[in-house]
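Re: export button greyed out
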Amino acid sequence: MSLNKRVIQDELLIVRCQQGDRQALEDLVRLYEKRLLYYIRRLVSNEQDAWNILQETWLKVLRSIDRLKEPKLLTVWLYHIARNTIMDYRRGKYADILRFQQDDLMPDTPDDAASMSLENAQFVHLALGQLSPPHREVLTLHFLEELPLEAIAAIINTSVGTVKSRLFYARHNLKKQIEKEMHNEK
Amino acid sequence: MKNEKNTLRDHLLEQDDVDNHAYDQYERSLRRMIHRKMHWIWRLLCGLAALGGVAFAVSLIHELCEPMHHDVEVFIKVGMGSLLLCVIFYTILIGVSAIRGTVRFGSVMPVVLAGVILSGFFICLWTFLIFVLPKLYELSQSQINAPMGPDLWIIGMVCTFLFIGFFGVLTAGMTFIIHLLYKHYSQIQRKLLEIELAIADLSEKLPPDSDESAGVPR
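Workaround output, generated via the alternate export path:
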């Protein structure tokens, strides 16, 4: 499906939700729940906590969906709410770790999401768990949604430069971890 | 075209093990949220409130049918009639919620806002008409010889009431109009998006070189 079509579908879904269409709400939940859960579980180790956070995220979404003025930003908005919910839940624990800053600008690197082979998904998944939370977070957003740097920056409340830098180091560390995992496998 | 089922994302999403019990719990809560299902305590409270509303409406109808033999009877009866309409509307709304066990989704905020404004206005009106106005009228009648006595009280109070009422109704009316405009706007937006989506669908189905084959110059 083209990006344009996906954006139109998201916009239509939001308009239907704002009109009070329950089916549209269910569709929205089904479309995003797995991705949001995967993102939450990368930042929260306990599964039960992750489900609770996801539930709380949907509650916030249902309460404030009428106020979403830019349906095009649906994905960013959803992840932003999920992240704020995680922060509320783990205030004082993750918040400090995620405030980690690395503002050095890094050179552009090829897109790893496209180059990662699908057979390596299991290694990517395992390696993600070995990264630091800030690196895990940007890479998860990058792999799940292939969002542009600006969108990731908007979700995690930081500058584009920081996101670029985190992605650079995160990819580098991920590659090292994958190699290690593969080596252990052999 | 990129196969949706074959992306790294889809493979990653399958990696996490899911606890079925936690998932069931989440699913039940989610369903309650989406369908706005009410807890039985809320249903009971709504049912009681609806019964109270019915009793209030019956007493108002009874009062309306009683002759008052009062100079300000028209004002009182018009106020009571308006209050009765308000009571019937909210009794039906709350009664239906209690019976169905769900809260109507969508447009909740404008309805609640208009309801709060109108209820406040009608309660003030009812208090004024039943308790304040007759008393003031009696006072003015007893001080009939005082300069501008009777007329000043009545005119002043009725003007104040009309002033408050005017703004109350104006606010409720504006809320309702904004709600209608928003509804109309979102329907137009939805139609436009449906058309856009249909166009995007069609352009996806067309082969990439269809323009050339149809002889359409690029």
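The CA atoms of residues 9 and 83 of chain A lie 24 Å apart. The button fix ships in the next patch.
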